[in-house]
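Internal ticket - ligand job 783, flavin-adenine dinucleotide:
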Amino acid sequence: MTIEFETPKPIANQQVMLKTVAENMMRSISREFDENEHTIPWSYVEFMHMAMKAAGGGGGLTVTEKPKEGDEKRPPLGYQKLASQIEMLSWGDLGMYLMTPGGGLGAAAVAAAGSAEQKEKFLERFNSDVPTYAAMCMTEPGAGSDTSSIRTRAVLDEKTKEWVINGEKIFVTGGDKSFTHYEKLGKGFIVVWASIDPTAGRAGMRAFVVESGTAGVKINKLEKKMGIRVSDTAAISLVDVRVPFENMLGSHNVEKDNKGFRGAMATFDATRPLVAASGLGVARAAFEFLKEKLEENGVKIRYGLPRQKLSNIEREVIDMEIMLKSAWLMTLKAVWMADNKKSNVLEASMSKVKAGDVATRLTQKAVELLGPLGYSRELLLEKWMRDARITDIYEGTGQINRLVVARQILGYSGSELR
Amino acid sequence: MYSFEPNEEQQMLIDAVGKYAENDLRASAHDNEENKELPKKLINKGWEIGLLQASIPESYGGFGERSAVTNVLALEEMAYGDLAGALAVLTPSLFAMPILLAGSEEQKKNYLPKIVAGEWSPYTSALIELSFDFDPNALKTTATIVEDKIKLDGAKSFVPYAKEAQEILVYANLNGVTQGFIVPKDSAGLSISEEREKVMGLNALPMYKVELNDVKIPLANRLGGASGHDFELIFASMRIASASAALGVAKSSFDYAVNYAKEREAFGVKIAQKQAVAFMLADMRTELEAMRLLTWEAAWKMDNHKEDLCSSAYLAHTGAVDMVMMVTDRALQIYGGHGYIRENPVELLMRNGRGFAMMLGLAIV
Ligand SMILES: Cc1cc2nc3c(=O)[nH]c(=O)nc-3n(C[C@H](O)[C@H](O)[C@H](O)COP(=O)(O)OP(=O)(O)OC[C@H]3O[C@@H](n4cnc5c(N)ncnc54)[C@H](O)[C@@H]3O)c2cc1C
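stdout (structure tokens):
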């Protein structure tokens, strides 16, 4: 190994292209879809599906890298490419990035906890000719951070060999697109986390693939949100929902180890740096916009001066740049570790802690520094501040990720530090 | 390509420096601070690891090639042991490294072999000036060219080992540009304070005031020769070094805090089991990682001659100054009242941690 910071060619090339997409397909319609909540930006959805298929990536933002012949020596880049893509698309529009066709967290759960057959059966659809979505349902009205306290139940009907699921899920990103039938979309699914043995706690938790259109599933509402308004966030109830036996991911025995739960956690280890990347994309957008506006108004940032000689605004901007750049390097390191099969629990959560802070603070500060310009809905900065705020909440709040970091540092289990 | 792990050779060096830092520097840091001295034996042992020697090419008496990345890794590890000790071991770099980076061929031939041959010898440099707005790019010490001489006037502070040094590299303002000048000890008009500098931390490191009144040196003593040199590269290297040392100091107090928090009990549990403490530790670790990566990147840019090296080095240093203050301060808080007692290591680390805001130029990679 070595220490290097050269952006790999394939990533540099991809970023040039994605920047054009971000500017022309996303930013140009950002405001419109922020003001018209719950409408679907078909132009973006269809363009992205087509573009990703043409690029050979299947229809989705996933780790697509397959080793090419005679290329064994080239280091794996899959997650690094993906994080860079996500950063750039979120620089365009964070909410719209969440609308990028593909399996999202639902497919990530199948990939992390499913068997080979399950992966083939459920993931193939994302390569089809129409945009297709999947979503993940963990959160419930009474269980957010404390995922082990979910109350959704799955009971096996011994006669039909079907799982019968009852419960209520909220805050499902892409839940509507994944479950509701839309003419322009392929058949998606939602992954529902439920307990098969309430006495077993975490060991009893399992994920179930529930296909679009399954009877008993109802989308109750789409949340109205502060930001990322173009992304649908669904509340879903499940009443006597029947799914085939083989739609349960992982082992059906309640083993005393926490395999099912660990499956969920493995999903998060992989996705936390990606959420970090998305938050940093918006943060960079806000930072660049701030610098541009300052420059237009004749404020130059004098890099290189000691703190005592800087104006307050210069200090703020320099501090922002430090936050932004260091958080991005942490994110890169976390995905680089994933690519190189190194355990990255600590680094993944640290990148999420840092990016959650940076995305939040940097955008809030930028709005403050630009005064009325920052607050005006005629510009996008105020939207970016609203959008960015989700980064420190989903995929583990800042607090939950700090707990993960602290446990790693201290060598503590969940019961020693809760 | 991105990559975030030291290579094998670097790892071996880190291990070697780490052993010395832990067993020699860290073990004696408290006593050295209290006694205000660093035993020569201790310094020589650190010198023998050969960090500077490995940066100097064979043609000038060394045995290697300079890598800022490698030096950053080594300096963090060394400063982890003790900042005063680390700065002392590397004081000769303050003179040698600028010559390596910006000196004329003649200066390299003249000085580098004798500095790296044999035992540690006190070559040093003088950059800092005692004023609130000290800025290495706008020095108050002046250099004027008078016929075939250079005339130096001004006052320098915090010059390590000035008293013993045979030669001092003095930085001064020549027509608005910072330039280095090699000033021999016996130059007329050069005076070095009898008393050592008194500062909040770093008491083990002997530092002096240096005054220059109408000091005249030959044109050839200008760093880089008669036509001078680019200060930016040296400055970037100083910033990166300072950031690396800050990482070491922060890591040291972080490790003390983790161990203490796992030992100390309050309200029937280890204090580390309280979120208020655990979250401080998580933030400390996160900021350390953030600034470490920023510092590594700046060093890598130096090794690879990247255009934006200077702003990178500036950002890494500025960020590290805040980080080391935050981390060392929280470590002290985690120790509670015991942290305030000088028998425990964290208060010294915090005093040293504050120094990074103004101690630019005491290390160079
Ligand atoms: C827009 C949006 C999209 C989402 N998408 C999805 C999705 O696709 N799928 C999905 O399953 N979920 C999703 N979520 C849910 C999200 O992951 C949860 O909201 C989040 O995990 C927090 O849970 P909660 O809202 O119940 O807060 P709570 O768990 O009630 O937390 C409230 C506060 O208490 C703090 N807290 C909780 N426990 C601790 C502790 N042990 N120590 C210290 N502090 C603690 C939290 O940090 C927080 O500040 C989404 C949420 C939103 C808003």
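Auto-summary: DSSP finds ten helices and ten strands in chain B. The mean pLDDT of chain B is 97.
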